[in-house]
Amino acid sequence: MTPASPSTALPDVLAIAARHAQEPGGLMPALHAVQNACGYIPKESVTGIAEIFNLSRAEVHGVITYYHHFRSEPAGRCVVQVCRAESCQSMGADALWAHAQTKLGCSGDHGTSPDGVYTLEPVYCLGLCASSPAMVVGSEVHARITPAKFDRIVAEAGVAA
Amino acid sequence: MSGEAIIVYVPRDSAALAVGADRVAKAIEAEAAQRGLTIKLVRNGSRGMFWLEPLVEVATPQGRVAYGPVETDDVAGMFDAGFLQAGAHALNLGLTEEIPFLKKQERLTFARMGITDPLSLDDYEAHEGFAGLRRALTLEPQAIVQQVLDSGLRGRGGAAFPAGIKWKTVAATTAKQKYIVCNADEGDSGTYSDRMTMEGDPYMLIEGMTIAGLATGATLGYIYVRSEYPHSVAVLDAAIAAARAAGYLGASVLGSGRAFDLIVRMAAGAYVCGEETALLESLEGKRGIVRAKPPLPALQGLFGQPTVINNVITLASVPIILARGADFYKNFGMGRSRGTLPIQLAGNIKHGGLVERAFGVTLRELLFDYGGGSASGRPIKTVQVGGPLGAYVPESQWDIPFDYEAYAAVGAVLGHGGLVVHDDTADLSKLARYAMEFCAIESCGKCTPCRIGSTRGVEVIDKITRNQNRPQQVKLLRDLCDTMINGSLCAMGGMTPYPVLSALNHYPQDFGLAAPDRKAA
User: Fold this and answer.
1) Exposed end of chain A (fewer CB within 10 Å): N or C?
2) CA nearest to B419 within chain A
3) What residues in B contact A130, CB-CB < 8 Å?
C-alpha cells in the first residue's frame, strides 16, 4: 500500500517481478510486488514483465487493467479510500463521500487533489461493516467516521505524506 | 501489587484497530509502566461486539472482565479505578462471558474468537485446537469425507452446496496434483466473518484446509484473500510460518508422512473473483473472468487439476466436526440447514457484531434481541440479507427462520450471513439502482445479460424514478431482471435482480408506484 520509493528504475522493477517468474500463476504476485515498490505499475515495465512470464503485452495489460487495485499512474502521496458499499451507505457514506470530495479537492471517482497530496477513491467494503462508515488512509483503517473525524485523520496523514 | 503479571487483552482485529486499539494498547502499557505495575498485554482477536471496541479485558480469578469502548483518554481513569482488579468504572461491563449478546450465542466455529492470542499455537492447542486434525490422521480419507457428508455442512460462502459432495468428487479423482483452494474474497458488504477468522483464529482455517487435504489427497492449498484485507494476509502468513515450523504443515503433517502446505495469494479488488471459477482464473495469474461449467472445478479446477474450493467459514467449520463428530454438529440447525451460521449484524444497527447461532433463528430476534434496533434510533425499514446480491427483506418476513430453503421460498437468500440494516430514511429505488450500478462496475463482461443488463438496469430505474413512461419501464425492468436471472453465467448477473426485484415488490412507493394493497407475504 505504502510506496517505498516511487522512483524505482526499470531494471530494478523487472528484477522485482522476475522473483515470481517460477511461481505457478506468478503474474499477480509479481504485479503486487511491483506496485508495492513503485506505488503503481509503470507503463514502461509492461513489455519486460510480459517477457518474464512469456506472455504477450496485451495479456499483461489486460490483467493490470482488469483489477481495480492495480494502478498504471502514480497516485497522490496520501491515498484516501472511502467505503461506498451498502453497509456504509446506511450510515451516511454518500454524504461522507461528498464531504471528502470537497475537503480534499478531489473530483470524480479516482481524483487527485491539484497539489498532488491526496487521491480519493471509492472502495467496496473493508469488512468493518459493524462500525460503518469506514475508510482507509494510507495503510491505516478507520471506522465510525464523522466529517470532523475525517478532517482530523486526513489532515494528520496529509502532513505526514 | 506482587508477583505475577496481570493479563490485559486488547484486540488486534482490524475493526478494533480502526477505532484506535493500537493507541489504547500503548496507553495501557505506558500507564502501567508509569505506575510501576507489571502487566502482560495480549493482543487477542475480537469477541465480535464491535460497538464496544476497543474492548479491553483484564483477567481476574472470577474470569475476564470487559471495559469498553475504551479511548486513550479513559486509560488513566481506569487505572485510578483499579482496572487491573476489575474495579468499578463507567466503562466496566462486568464478566465478558455474561454480556447477553455473547451469552445467548451458540459459538462452535467462533468458540475461541477473542479468547485466544491468534498466533499462539499453545493457546490454540489449549482450546481444542488441532483435535480435529489429530482425529483425521487416524481415519481413512473416505471416512473423513463421510464425516463431512454426515455433518450436513453446506458451503457458507453463499451457494450452500454440500461440502462433502465436493470433497467426495475430488477424492475420487486420480491426479498427480490436487488442490484445496480457500475462497477468502469476502467482498459482500455487511460481512466480516471470514476476516475475523483469518485475523482472530487463523489456525482453525489452516487445520480445516489440512483436513480437506488429507480427505481428498491434495497436498497444496491456496488461500485467496482480498487486497482490502492486508491485516488478514499478514496474520495468515505468520500463522502458516509458525504452523510449518511446528510440524503442522509441510512434508509430513504431525509426523504422519503425509504432506500438506499452504500459500496465501492476494487478490486485487475484483468483486467477481469471489465466484469460484473467476477466482481460479485469478490464481492462475489471469483476468478474473468466469468460466463456463462444466467442467466442474472438482474435476478440472486450478491449473486444470481436481480442486476443492470452499469458503473460509466452510473450511473453518471442519475441525470441530472432526473433533466432536458429525452428529454433534448435525444436531444444531433445522431442515436441511445443519449446524450453525456466523451471522454478521451490520449497517444501521445499534449493537453490530458477530452472532453465531444454529439455523432457525429469526431476523427479528437478531435485529432486536441482539442488535438492539437501529443505530440512528429510527424505525428499521429494511434489511438486506446475504450481501449485494441478496434481497431486501421487509418486516412482514422477519419471522421466517434462518434456513436456506425457507429463505429461497420467498425469493431471498442467506448468502454469507451478512445483514445490512437500513432505517426509514432509506430510499429503496436508490438502493436498487446501486445494485445495478455495482453489477455494472464489477461485471467480468463475459456474458451479455450481466455486462449489458446492469447498465440498462441503471437507465431503466432512472427513467422510473423520473416518471418517464413509468408503467412501461417497470415492465421493462422486470423483463430485464428475468433475462439476467435466467441468462447469466454466474451469480453476479444472476442474482443482482434479487435486491432490485425485492425493492420493487416490497417498497413500490419508493419507485413512485402505488403501495401494495396487501401485506406482502
Assistant:
1) N
2) A87
3) 15, 50-51, 192, 344-346, 349, 352-354
- Chain B window 86-105: which residues touch A at a Cβ cutoff of 8 Å? none
Kindly state the cell numbers that stand for B214. Answer: 488429507
Structure confidence at residue B1 (pLDDT): 45
| Contact B415/A at CB under 8 A | no
CA distance A46 to chain B (A): 15
Residue of chain A nearest B435, judged by CA positions? A86
> Which residues, at least 6 apart from B174, have a Cβ–Cβ distance to it below 8 Å?
none
DSSP code for B51: G
ipTM: 0.95
Query: Are A75 and A40 contacting, i.e. CB atoms less than 8 angstroms apart?
Result: yes
CB contact under 8 A, B227 and A69: yes
Residue in the block written with cell 465510525: A144
Low-confidence ranges of chain B (pLDDT < 50): 1-2, 519-521
pLDDT exceeds 60 at position A7: no
| Residue where one domain finishes, among candidates A41, A66, A91 | A66
Q: Of the CATH numbers 3.40.50.11540, 2.60.40.10, 1.10.10.10, 3.10.180.10, which one belongs to the domain with range B121-329?
A: 3.40.50.11540
Helices (H), B106-201: 121-126, 131-136, 141-151, 163-171, 193-200
Q: What's the mean per-residue pLDDT of chain B?
A: 97
| Sign of the four-CA dihedral B434, B403, B357, B192 | negative
For residue B377, count other CB atoms closer than 10 A to its CB: 9
Tell which of A63, A97, A129, A132 to mutate to test the B interface (max B CBs under 10 Å).
A129
Of the residues A22, A41, A60, A86, the best mutation for testing chain B's interface (the one with the most B CB atoms within 10 Å of its CB) is: A86
Does the beta-carbon distance from A69 to B267 stay under 8 Å? yes
Residue B153 contacts A where some CB pair is shorter than 8 Å: no
Q: Which set of grid coordinates corresponds to residue B109?
A: 466455529
Q: At what angle do helices B202-216 and B230-245 cross, to 10 degrees?
A: 60
What are φ and ψ of residue B250, in 5° steps?
125, -160
Pairs of residues, one from chain A and one from chain B, whose beta carbons lie less than 8 Å apart: 151
The greatest distance separating any two alpha carbons of chain A, rounded to the nearest whole angstrom, comes to 51
Q: Which domain holds residue A92?
A: 78-160
Q: What is the pLDDT of residue A160?
A: 79
pLDDT in tens, A104-129: 999 888 899 999 999 999 999 999 99
